[in-house]
Design a protein that fits this description.
This protein is α/β, with parallel strands linked by helices. The protein has helices at 3-7, 36-48, 61-66, 87-100, 102-115, 120-135, 138-147, 184-199, 230-239, 243-249, 264-267, 298-301, 303-317, 323-329; strands spanning 26-30, 52-56, 69-72, 81-83, 160-165, 168-173, 205-210, 253-257, 260-262, 274-278, 282-284, 321-322, 334-336.
Length: 337
């Protein structure tokens, strides 16, 4: 649709069919120079719209901010935009992703907009409420059924290694045989280490890294959907998770990442004061294709580094970005030689 179409309400049709199913979850807006009054009306419509709105091209800055993300060929675009070779092709891919998991896509959009002005603890609660909602949905059930039989859980002797050198505490994720997957044992051991840093005033710095070629491959897929109930899952994610603690430690934490950083392997480092990436590092949020949204704090930590627009793009596209792109966006603070 054009800017004028958006201004006239073209994206405002009811988003649900008679059975409550989401229809047409994403609309594409062709951006171009427009009359200021028309662009202003379009921006107001965009802010109130129940659909994902993806811009293509460049246009009025206020309108671009009101959209969910804009795709452009301009390399120097602001954080509301993502530079791609073929904006129309990328927009079509985002539409396909939203149509495959429409509930997850729209919940992601709503969470990113809702939490933009909240403090971190409150925003993490909103993310988790939404995540628990989606855990009970048909899209996640479909993904879970496609997984097939689970592997039996196995105990890990030392899922996290701690070492103290003066006022520096080193924490190493130590499950390289599972690519440091963020399962229950690793999560709990990481939380214990972070709590130690909060309780000990003699610890000035925390350095978090991962053993093996991959920092963290995200949540352990064999544990997805195994919480006894959705309310318990919420409290485990928030009060028992690492995101709040890394946020509280803030500038005291440096995370060093390498390899394929997926899900929690992106979301948790983004809370840290400094993230240093190896040149081979890549970053991916796969949850929407699973019928979910990022659940380890990513809808909170990433927007505070790269904005809600690029966060939505990462999560909806589900494709990796490399270390240099991550540096340009501000997702990492340095790329190591």
């Amino acid at each position: 649709m054009s800017i004028a179409d958006l201004a006239d309400g073209a994206a405002d049709a009811p988003p649900l069919d008679g059975d409550g199913a989401v229809r047409d979850p994403l609309a594409v807006v062709e951006l171009a120079p427009a009359d200021a009054a028309v662009a202003g009306r379009a921006a107001r419509r965009a802010r109130d719209c129940d659909r994902l709105l993806v811009g293509v091209g460049s246009g009025d800055p206020a309108l671009v901010r009101a959209l969910d993300v804009t795709l452009t060929t301009a390399a120097d675009a602001g954080r509301e935009s993502v530079a791609v070779d073929d904006p129309a092709e990328r927009a079509a891919a985002l539409r396909d992703a939203a149509e495959r998991s429409p509930q997850a896509a729209l919940v992601l959009r709503d969470v990113l907009r809702t939490t933009e002005g909240l403090d971190v603890p409150a925003a993490l609660d909103v993310e988790s409420y939404a995540y628990s909602t989606l855990l009970g949905g048909a899209e996640f059930a479909r993904w879970l059924a496609s997984r097939g039989p689970r592997l039996l859980p196995s105990d890990v002797k030392d899922p996290v290694l701690l070492a103290r050198d003066g006022d520096v505490l080193s924490i190493t994720l130590n499950r390289p045989q599972r690519r440091n997957a963020y399962g229950r044992q690793l999560r709990d051991a990481l939380v214990d280490g972070l709590r130690l840093a909060l309780l000990d005033d003699g610890i000035a710095r925390v350095v978090l890294d991962g053993a093996g070629p991959v920092f963290c491959s995200g949540g352990d897929l064999d544990e997805f959907g195994t919480a006894p109930d959705l309310a318990t899952a919420h409290f485990v994610r928030t009060r028992g998770g690492a995101g709040r603690l890394i946020h509280r430690l803030g500038p005291r934490v440096e995370v060093r990442v390498q390899g394929s950083c997926v899900g929690a392997g992106v979301e948790l480092p983004a809370f840290a004061g400094r993230v240093a990436a190896a040149a081979d590092a890549t970053f991916r949020l796969p949850e929407v294709a699973m019928g979910l949204i990022p659940g380890a704090g990513g809808t909170v930590s990433l927007p505070r580094r790269i904005g809600r627009w690029r966060t939505l793009y990462l999560a909806l596209a589900g494709e990796p970005v490399d270390a240099r792109t991550a540096l340009g966006w501000g997702l990492v603070d340095a790329v190591l030689p």
